[in-house]
Amino acid sequence: MVTRLEIAGRPDLRDPRGAHAAGRIRNFLGIPVEQVRTRDVYRLEADLHDGEAEKVLEEFTDPVLHRGGLGRVEADRFDFAVSVAFKPGVTDPVGKSAMVAVQDTLGRLLTLAGGEEPAVYSSTLYLLTGVTRDQAETIGTSLLANPVIQTITIRSWDEWSSSDPDMTVPRVPAQHRPEVQRYDLSGSDDELLAISRKGLLSLSIQEMHAIRDHFLAAGNDPARTGLGLDHRPTDVELECLAQTWSEHCKHKIFNATVTYHEDGKEPETIKSLFKTWIMGATKDIGAPWLVSVFHDNAGVVTFDEQIHLVYKVETHNSPSALDPYGGAITGIVGVNRDPFGTGLGAHLLANVWGYCFGSPFHEGDLPKGLLHPRRVRDGVHQGVIDGGNQSGIPYGRGWEVFDHRYLGKPLVFCGTVGALPVTIAGGPGEEKAALPGDRIVMTGGRIGADGIHGATFSSAALDESAPVQAVQIGDPITQKRMFDFLLVARERGLYNAITDNGAGGLSSSVGEMAEQSGGARLDLSQAPLKYAGLSTWEILLSEAQERMTLAVSPKKIDEFLELAR
């Protein structure tokens, strides 16, 4: 059962969001739109009792500012309606918050017949006056929506007024029964590279050879044959290796051996630029205020006798080029995880940022698949602000640089500073260790198809074929709730180690902690999912900003889970 709520501004009041959109349309696209009015739409896919839809509508509608309706709110004549909604499988933070609000309003959990998960889906409706259909399509695809992660529906006044309200929902269809695939790597180099490209693995031919040779040698190992495995790696194994070996995670260029030639001088061999000039310099200086560097999620330095400062800055370039707002909010919310996953967890204090963009006044043609730099800049800036504010982390300081050379790929730096107690639960706050026998616990948001291949995608060249799954939409509210819970668990000493579900998801987080414990057994069937139909490798690799992985002692697992409830 689908119930549609539509919330419109009162016609006698100014629509600030619509006026802002109209200004951007005129300034960025040169289209002389006369007016833009906006509406919020919520589709509730749940079984509601008599009178409950009206109760929710009343709660969602401010009578001073809004008019609300079940199905549709009548409108004065316009030319075209542009509806913008998230594609199936893309995180809808507004919809998730609306779901909580609906359940709070009704005082019960929502249900859906057939055992399906109930959901609330949000969308925005733009009513445009003074444009043609071609102009409305340009406005929708170039400004109001990002086709990589959003759907766009355009209707004329006649089409809109003569049709029933749109009741469709972007539920992910369970189109296949997940099956583990096996890859035959005995083919030619061209065939191996085709496997890498098709799977978005970003593996070189040398890496494909190494994987092939390893599995050929291990094909008759009783440990594999006893599980029904052979010389062919499964999709889970191949995807896990691609994530672990990605440039994004492994920094192969910085860690490579480089032979440097200059002006006829003797060649110089540098064994890792990073270890020589960054780690090496830091070690040589040996500053006494360094507490923890280069081995955890962020750096730790001394502040006073009670707390250490934790600092981390990272880039989020490719995702911000695809979806400026979503990429940036994901960047800032994502870097929040790193200080929180450093040591036993730092309290987050402030966010910092830095941007490098093409000229916001660019008037020439753009390569296929690229957004206008002004749109990129505005979306990124708003995403960084929202990501911090919605998580309760103040927006600090930053900088911006504009140059035409950043037209093809912007640089987006996001950072967070936190405070880590010197002592936590009787031990050093910067120390953690996953121990043999510890339980693997994932906390935060559920696993979905978004955030898959983020590591390998970020390691490849950016082009118009970039996958929708590589783009995450950060969920700052869920992350805030998770952080508040984990700070209490930290003070009670309920876990031994913590790290984030960053690029590579469970593959990365569990893999890192398993180095300390000597291995891990991971039961992916226990992972909470957003919807059915995910393949095993997708469950393993899906990244989310609002998820963390912890190592919890079996003696404390019951107390930890009780606190989580």
Automatic annotation (TrEMBL):
Alphabetical keyword list: ATP-binding, Cytoplasm, Ligase, Magnesium, Metal-binding, Nucleotide-binding, Purine biosynthesis
Pfam families to which the protein is assigned, alphabetical: AIRS, AIRS_C, FGAR-AT_linker
Gene Ontology biological process terms in this record: 'de novo' IMP biosynthetic process
GO molecular function: ATP binding; metal ion binding; phosphoribosylformylglycinamidine synthase activity
Domain of life: Bacteria
Segments forming domain Phosphoribosylformylglycinamidine synthase linker: 194-252
Record domain PurM-like N-terminal: where: 296-419
Keyword Metal-binding carried by entry: yes
All copies of domain PurM-like C-terminal, residue ranges: 436-564
Name of the protein in its database record: Phosphoribosylformylglycinamidine synthase
Organism: Candidatus Polarisedimenticola svalbardensis
Upper classification of the organism: Bacteria, Pseudomonadati, Acidobacteriota, Candidatus Polarisedimenticolia, Candidatus Polarisedimenticolales
